[in-house]
Amino acid sequence: MKKLLLFSLFIFSFYSCKKDRSKVELINLLSELGDEKQNFTFSSDSITEITGQYGTRILVNPADLVLENGRSASGKIRLELTELTTKEALIRHNAQTRSEDDWLISGGAYNIQFFDDSGEELKLREGKSLEVQFPKFADKPMQIFSGTRNEETMMNWELKDEVLQEQTFNGVLVERRLVIDEESTRAYRVDTAWEIESRRDLGKISTIQLEEYKNSNKTDSIFFQNDTVYILEKTICDFLEGTMDCLGDHEKNNLWRTEKILYENIQLAKLGWINVDRLYPEVDERFELQISNGDQFTLLYVIDESNSTVLNVYADEGYKISLPKGRQFKVLGFFLDDEKLFAAKKAIRLTGDRKLELKMKAIDLEDIDKYLN
Question: How deeply is 128 buried, as exposed, middle or buried, from its count of CB atoms within 10 A (0-12, 13-18, 19+)?
Fold first, then answer.
């Protein structure tokens, strides 16, 4: 009896270790399929501003970065920035949106890490912080959370003191109009016109006002220069192809650049995972979903189809989760067996407690996006 018990424990331990290895391999595989992870290299002797592909702006002073032993960084420094701005990206990087028992709706999750020439990780010097601006993807007020993973690789987000404020801009309306040059018209007997440009100070404008200008059919384009946003109105020449050169010098010389809308900058006291989140709304009525064959999956998620809420289920012993009544969710599972990848997905809307069996099928890597989207 004792030998049988020991053998059973050995088999269970072997299976658990194999499953854990497959989980890590699968997470690494999925994360490499996207373009969310970016690397930037800069000198350790100058303050540098870096902008990520999805809009994150980081102002880093190398003097504020140290090795674990407290020694300052030297030579080249590498920033590894991961920007997760969609549900698909959150799933690829196994970054569920949960703070303990509270669900979250993500407005973007980010991982900020620095490394020295030798690849050793850097941290912030005691008492120092990192200035960061995150892109604004949500209309509702959002808060800052920091993330850590447990031994099951599940992400948990902790609410921080930093409060995100909507960015405001100094607004300038650039109005352009055509004026007939009567003297040239008489001399050459051809209508000749000049473009006259005037600027009107709009004062401080919010992102909501900026969106209104952006969506107006009177607006030609919007440009940023330092902390000022310039809104260019259309003129008749914008509608007449090839009849007149309407570009001002600022556009010809590419002195103005387009930008994404950001929150006001904040100071991070700790590097690593940061999430721009808000709490999931309170729900009065929920029903229980149980995935009956959940133990067959390496990774298992439940995703709210109406927002960026992604929840892990693979570490729950009963593979159960309580979902709001009538709301549309997607259940998504992956299984990695040696080099074979299997996947399953199912759209659900609960009107009562339900047991669900997911049907897996073998897929190629290029087919993963069909399951994520």
Answer: middle
